[in-house]
Amino acid sequence: MPSNAEANGVEAMVGVFFKDNDFEFMMLMALGATYYKGADVGECLSAAASIEDSDYEGWYRAWRTTADRVRGFAERSAAKGHQASARDAFLRASTYYNTAAFFLDGTSDPSRLLPTWKAHRKCFDEAASRFDPPFEKVEIPYEDTTLPGYLFKVDDSERTRPLLILNNGSDGTVTDMYLMGGAAALERGYNALTFDGPGQGAALFLQGLYFRPDWEKVVTPVVDFALRLPEVEPERIGIQGVSQAGYWVPRAVAFEHRIAAAVVDPGVCDVSTSWFSQLPQDMQELLERGQKEEFDRYMEEGMQSSESLRYRVSFRMKPYGTDSPYEAYKMVGQYKLDGVAGKILCPMLATDPENEQFWPGQARRLYEALTCPKQLVSFTAAEGADSHCEPKALGLRNQRIFDWLDETLRAVAPY
What we know:
Helix 4 runs antiparallel to helix 5 and helix 5 packs antiparallel against helix 6 (113-128). By secondary structure, the protein is α/β, with parallel strands linked by helices. The chain has helices at 4-7, 21-32, 41-49, 56-79, 83-101, 113-128, 174-187, 201-205, 216-226, 245-253, 273-276, 281-289, 292-305, 307-317, 325-332, 362-369, 394-412, and strands at residues 136-142, 145-152, 161-167, 191-195, 232-242, 261-265, 348-353, 374-379. It contains 17 helices and eight strands. The longest helix has 24 residues, at 56-79. The N and C termini lie far apart (51 Å).
């Protein structure tokens, strides 16, 4: 099965480190994390040097070794009272554990995913406790349970400030949300709130909650919770959606009108296109005819003979709560903004990176469907800012997003 870039006809990444597009993208994500101390360049290069293209076991081994080593640095610094050094090393280790876990579904032992994810989360929690002020772990009431989250505060003064809600994508982590919005928000005087929604992070791995298309049922409880916080200015709540949340955030704000500004990186109108672009026509016909057993049998045969297919299908259908590829494909077909975008009232910014490999062209499609105040922001290869979520250009990304947020929220109420 081709990569998303190849299947969508998008120019593949140059391949500085790997010919495998998935490996290259994850390597660039790790390097991009260095902007806010979520990784170190030398550690990333050292890990990559020992990895063969498309060797999922080798990928896990190299990044797990790096994560364990850096966690050891953190623990030794913490034991001697060097809290800043411990904080930074725990944060880097959290990135490396997540990077190690990413392709485990393609290996012979996917059972290592949960303990590796737990190590990632433990390291993030250790880092979070050493920031000033510490990141506050929160539980957000949701239906008959709660969603785990983190509140990033500028200080402990309880001064009201604008709040940015950080909505993750299909496979991101809380570390990603700090690096891709939380740190930049704090620098600019915003508080920020992130959470694991159904199908994400702890909500998936520890609570068994799964994705849902009607994401307003998730975001509305988050807004309810935020409005009870003394630090929040009710009129100045923004939200940022990354990756697949480029669908979830527009869906949510179409119905949740207490949000004053929304950012999607990138805009996504139809999540299913990233799945169907890689599916052979004869398999699509089986889906259309409702031939579940035959579809699943062919998919299982393919997964047994291809590590790449096994990784893609197993990893992607896990947060949908099914082990049937047929059911997963049917479910993802519900994740569309048809008839919804016109209901959005708040201003919206959509990023449109060149060489977007998962949902090419959809940011502009969303932009054209919007009737609210709107802006489409391009990121180019010439700027070093192309590809999904601009992994190589976190500084430029945050500059453009937060300049727009500053101007948009000031128009609501000065601060």
